[in-house]
Write a structure and sequence with these properties.
The chain has one helix and 16 strands. It is mainly beta and 228 residues long. It has a five-stranded mixed beta sheet with strand order 4-2-3-1-5, with no helix packed on it. A five-stranded antiparallel beta sheet has the order 6-10-9-7-8, with no helix packed on it. A five-stranded mixed β-barrel has the order 11-12-14-16-15. Strand 12 and strand 13 form a beta hairpin.
C-alpha cells in the first residue's frame, strides 16, 4: 500500500481551504467529482496598497506583476479622481494583508462592503470611494439589494448605463460637482433629493444650477452633459 501523503498548513490557510471546500460542496449539482464543475480561470492579486483589504472590499487594479512563475494583478486603494481611469475589482471572502496575495470575485454578481453613510436602495449606483475599500454612491455598479454575509454588504453588478440627473449648484467646465438622480415613475420623471452623486463636467462650458443632465459612466466616474 502506498504511503499516505500528509501536508501541514498554517491555521489561517487551513481555515480558508475548509471554507472553500464547504462552498464547493454547496454548489448546485455537486457530485463530489472535480471534473463535474466547469473550469473558471482565477486572476490572483498582490496587495500593494499599504493597507489590509477587507473581505468583499473594492480595490483599484494598477497593473500586473510577475512573481514565482505567476502573473498577479496589483491591487491599490483608490486615492482620488486621478486614479479613476483604472479597473475596479472586488476582493473575495478573506481579508488580504498588505504584501500578501488574494483572489478577486469573478462576477457578474459581486458582494461588496459599503460605507454605511446612507441606506442604499435597489437601483442605486455605487462605486469606489477615495481612501477606502468600501463603496459609496458613484459609478460603475448597480445595487441589487443587501447581503447579510457580513455587516454593511451589498449585492451589485457592473453597470455602464446612463442616467437622467439634475445639478444642484453650477458646475464649471473641468470641475467636479454634486448632482441628483432623476427617476422614472408612474407619474413621469422626478428628482430624488435624498441622495447625491459626485460627477464631473467635461463639456467645455459651465453647467447652470438646477439643470437637467444626462449622466454617463466614463472611466470609473460620472461625466455629465446638460440637456438643451
Amino acid at each position: 500500500m502506498a504511503a499516505e501523503e500528509l501536508a501541514v498548513f498554517q491555521p489561517s490557510t487551513a481555515r480558508k481551504l475548509l471554507a472553500m471546500l464547504q462552498a464547493w460542496e454547496r454548489t448546485p449539482g455537486f457530485t463530489g467529482e472535480l471534473e463535474s464543475h466547469a473550469y473558471r480561470e482565477h486572476f490572483p492579486f498582490l496587495n500593494s496598497s499599504g493597507h489590509t483589504i477587507p473581505p468583499y472590499g473594492i480595490f483599484l487594479v494598477d497593473g500586473t506583476s510577475e512573481a514565482n512563475g505567476m502573473n498577479y494583478l496589483i491591487a491599490k486603494r483608490y486615492a482620488s479622481w486621478t486614479a479613476a481611469q483604472s479597473v475596479p475589482m472586488v476582493n473575495g471572502p478573506f481579508e488580504v494583508p498588505d504584501g500578501e496575495y488574494g483572489s478577486p470575485q469573478l462576477g457578474p454578481i459581486y458582494r461588496v462592503v459599503h460605507d454605511d453613510a446612507i441606506t442604499y436602495s435597489v437601483g442605486d449606483r455605487v462605486g469606489w470611494k477615495a481612501d477606502s475599500f468600501q463603496v459609496a454612491l458613484n459609478a460603475a455598479f448597480i445595487n441589487l439589494g443587501d447581503d447579510d454575509i457580513v455587516e454593511n454588504c451589498l449585492r451589485v453588478k457592473r453597470d455602464f448605463s446612463s442616467m437622467m440627473g439634475q445639478s444642484i449648484l453650477a458646475i464649471a467646465d473641468g470641475a467636479s460637482g454634486v448632482i441628483r438622480r432623476r427617476v422614472l415613475g408612474s407619474g413621469g420623471w422626478t428628482t430624488d433629493t435624498s441622495k447625491s452623486y459626485p460627477a464631473r463636467n467635461d463639456t467645455g462650458t459651465s453647467i447652470d444650477a438646477a439643470s437637467r443632465l444626462i449622466v454617463l459612466s466614463v472611466d470609473g466616474i460620472f461625466s455629465i452633459v446638460q440637456v438643451c
